[in-house]
Amino acid sequence: MLDLPDSAVLLKQQAADWRASVLLAGAALEASGAVTAEYGPRMVGMVEEFGAYIVIAPGLALAHARPGDDVLRAGMAVVTLDEPVLFGHPYNDPVSVILGLAVLTADEHVTGIAELANVFNETAVIERLANATSADEVRAVFGLSAQAESAE
Amino acid sequence: MKIVAICGAGVGTSAILKVNAERALARLDIDADVTAADLASVQVAAADAQVILTSPEFVEAIGRTNADVIVVQNYFDVDELQQKLEAALG
Question: Measured between alpha carbons, how far is B37 from B21 in angstroms, rounded to an integer?
Answer without folding.
Answer: 14
